[in-house]
Structures are given as C-alpha cells and as structure tokens.
Amino acid sequence: MIREFNLNDVLYLVAAMRWTLALTAIAFAGGGLVGLMIALLRVSSLPPLRWIGTIYVLAVQGTPLLAWLFVFFFGLSIVGVEVSPWIAAAASYSIYAGAFLGEIWRGALQAIPRQQWEAGSSLGLSFGQQLRYIIVPQATRLAIPPTVGFLVQLIKNTSLAAVIGFVELTREGQLTTATTFRPFTVYLTVAALYFLLCFPLTQASRRLERRMLHGAH
Amino acid sequence: MAPTEQPLVELQDVVKRYGTHTVLNGVSLAVGKGEIIAIIGRSGSGKSTMLRCVNGLEPIQGGSVRFEGTTVNDPGTDLRKLRQHVGIVFQSFNLFPHLTVEKNITLAPKVVKGMAPAEARALAGRVLAKVGLAEKIDAWPDQLSGGQQQRVAIARSLAMQPTLMLFDEITSALDPELVGEVLKTLEEMAAEGMTMMLVTHEIGFARKVADRVVFMHEGRIWEEGPAADTLARPRTPELETFLSAVLH
Q1: pTM (2 decimals)?
Q2: Is the pLDDT confidence value at B212 over 90?
Q3: CA distance B104 to chain A (A)
Q4: Which ipTM score applies to this complex?
C-alpha cells in the first residue's frame, strides 16, 4: 500500500527522535559513570586496579556494541532472565560508552604534568583533593572536544537499538520507506534530523573550549 | 645549633636507587633549626634527589630520613601531615594555571587546614606582601613573569607556615635578569630565621646567605663545611674542579 511521503511522515520522524535522544541520554549518563570509574582505575597507583581498567577497555573496545545488545536482550532471555529493552539498552550502552569515555578521560588526566600532582601533594593535599582541585579542572578542558566527538558518535549509534525493538529515528525512517517507497527523500530527512541534533553540540563544544582556554579570565 | 638540641632534619646512610642505578649512596646530614644549607654539585650528583627525600617525594631503599623526630621513610608515617610542615619550591614553579594567584595560595590552607575563605584571602595578602607581590593577588599565573611566578610559588609554600623550606634549583629556569628578585626573597626569609635547604647553582648566593655548604658528588656528600670557608678553600680536587667550572 504505497502512499505519498507527506508532512505527517516528517512529524513521525521528529517524534521518533525522542527515542534517539532518550537512548543517548541513558547511554551518556551510564557511560559517564562507568567511564569515570574506568578512568580512575587506569590512573590508579595500584597496579591491580590499573589492570582491571585496562582489561575492561580492551574487552569492550574489541567487541561490537551490537553483540552486547544481543547478549543482554536475547541471550539473557534464553537462559530464562526476561530483560526489558530499556534495561538491555541501558546496560549495553553504558558498558560500551564507559570504555570509550574512560579512555578519553584517562588521556586527559594523564596529559596534566606530573609536577602538578607533586605540587599538590607537597602542600599536603590527598590524592582525592589533588584530583578534584588541581587535575580534573585542568583535564576537563582537554577532555571536552573528544567527549563531544564521542557523544555525536553515540547519537548516531543509538540506531543499533532498533535490533531490540526501539523505533528510534533510523528505524522510523525504515518503516516510512516501506510504506512510501521514497528511500531517497526519507533518508535525507533522517540525515537532516541527525544533523540538527549533532551540529549544535559540536558548535557548543567549540565555544566552551574557547572560553575555558582563556583559563576563565 | 646547641649540642643538646635535636636536629630538625636528619639523614642517615640514605640510599636511593632507580633500578640498578644508585643515585644516593649513603648520605648522612643533620640540619639544625634556623640553619641555611646550600647544596651544590654537578647535575646528576644526587642533590635534588636528596632534597626530595626530605619531604618523602622520593621513596628510599636504605637508611633513614627523620624530620622533627618523625621517620619520613616509615610506611606508617602520614606524609600529608608531614608536608604541611615542610614546604618545597620547584625549578619549574608548578603554579596551578587554572587558579588565580590568590586561589593558588589559599587552596591548601582552605582544603587541608579548613581555613575560612576570608581568613585565607587575608593570609594570601600577607604572604604575597612578604615576596613583594601584594598587588598581584588577583592575577593569573600566565600574566606574571617567571620571577614573579616563582615568588608566588614561594608565597604559596609560606602560607602553610612550614618549619622547613626546601628549594630545588628555583632560579635555574629563570632569565638572568629575574634571578635577583627571587634571591632577594630568599635572603629576606633567611633573615627571618627560616630553616632552609636549597639546591643551587648560585655560588655567590650560597657564600653570602648559607651557613653551611654541602658539595655532592657521585651520590655522596663529598665535602661539607661553613659556607665561606668551604667555598674559598676546597679540600678535595672534585670541589675545586666544580667551583672553577661554575665560577668560570
């Protein structure tokens, strides 16, 4: 039953963006928490903690996100654990984003000269205080561009959640194509909508970085 | 130093190795309260390493380092507590670039000692006045010259009211015309009776300000004695060679 691609279809696509946004928000929040832990493990002075962080990053970066989605959604239900798509998506995306954000943030932390830590510890600050007052504020500026870069990747990667039933932007585009048979128009619209999400982010990142470059003065 | 008084700092047979390379090979030194010790020697002679052992920045492999009766190299020692009494100033200033001069100085008093913000700002004003930079309290580190940055670093250490100050080649990274202002600050601190250990290449300054000179060579204290005498009449050929090299 082929029909025309009309304004209603565009509105449906726009509505589907909310799932794209919701998935991105969950992935970024969960991945942020995991990433923070991984970054701290990776800069720890205790070798076993560093190993745990390294193994995690190697394991997750070396496996596809799609596999994690399948494992959590279909895999667990085979062994009798029923998992809702939201839980499966939250877990998979947190694991995946955590590995990448952890590495980005580790790099930023390690880019701060050792002497900054030394100056802090010589003044009697604890490891946590050095991190909080001296290292993290400086590392944040370095971390902003790659973090936003990853966030933009993440927005686009939420389309993979379609395999476990989410009708987000890309999936909605597929469905619309199936009824209108206008793949070119539909997918161009989908691409434009992704662009509308991503472009302001990269712009904001540039502004923020410029502002922080001036050491806030 | 009165004979009955316990030294403020006491190094005994300190051995420091990086892998198989021995940097300090049995160093013993006692520093009394109020003393000013200049540590000189070639680069690689172990002088900076020795200084960094005093506040526990360098773990040691043998011997002991004591400060006010506390064994610094004892694993049970709370280094954070110790470092509140031992200030150190580095060659590369190591100011915190994301904080103003005031915040650089007040960070540790506020965070470590729990000082109230208003009190901490007043303290920053006082220590900055000591190094002659009272008007720079709201400046950012990158707005200051090297000499000014180093004086802020000194003020930052002073704000913790240390009993002992360590200076690790603090004028070596400065343009020649900026060395004087930093040395002047050191002289003023010396006049106020601060106990100081300074690694330096400024032989003239060592002669003028230091009570004792320690010459390090190949990881050992090769020669030590009263500053003027030791520098005027070296007893070992190594010190003689070193002095003729640095004094041209």
Answers
A1: 0.85
A2: yes
A3: 10
A4: 0.91
